[in-house]
Design a protein that fits this description.
Elements: E1 8-9, E2 19-22, E3 28-31, H1 49-54, E4 58-59, H2 72-89, H3 103-110, H4 116-131
Antiparallel strand pairs: 1-4, 2-3
Length: 132
């Protein structure tokens, strides 16, 4: 497959309207699930290809495995581990006024968006683990 024959698929969740790709130069295109020729994917100019990949567009013929879902107990253990790592580094910029790690830092280390409830529950587990 040469680079001129590459067909892109829209990012997950954009299948209905396609993924809109816009450059700061004012150029724009849209990646559709089915191209105007009725074949899967859309041919897009080389100019847009890096941005298409960055926005989560796929390439026809390259199947990427779906990320494994993380169950709640695994998420909590990842959050607890992240809390421990932040506290071990003892960087005051990573801590809130009460001395607990900032949720944004925990989300970054855990690899997913951590809600306040998830954080509070995991912090309780973390504190309990210190008592053991």
């Amino acid at each position: 497959m040469t680079k001129d024959n590459v067909r892109f698929l829209p990012a997950e969740g954009d299948e209905r309207e396609g993924t809109h790709i816009a450059m700061t130069s004012g150029h724009a295109c849209r990646v559709y699930k089915v191209g105007p020729d009725g074949k899967p994917g859309t041919h897009i100019p080389v100019l847009f290809r890096k941005e298409a990949i960055a926005r989560g567009c796929g390439i026809v013929g390259i199947d990427e495995p779906k990320p494994a879902k993380i169950d709640a107990t695994t998420k909590q253990s990842l959050i607890v581990d992240a809390i421990g790592k932040v506290l071990d580094t003892d960087n005051p910029d990573d801590l809130q006024g009460d001395g607990r790690p900032k949720i944004e830092i925990i989300s970054e280390l855990a690899g997913f968006s951590v809600t306040k409830k998830m954080y509070d529950d995991a912090f309780g587990v973390f504190q309990d683990s210190l008592e053991d």
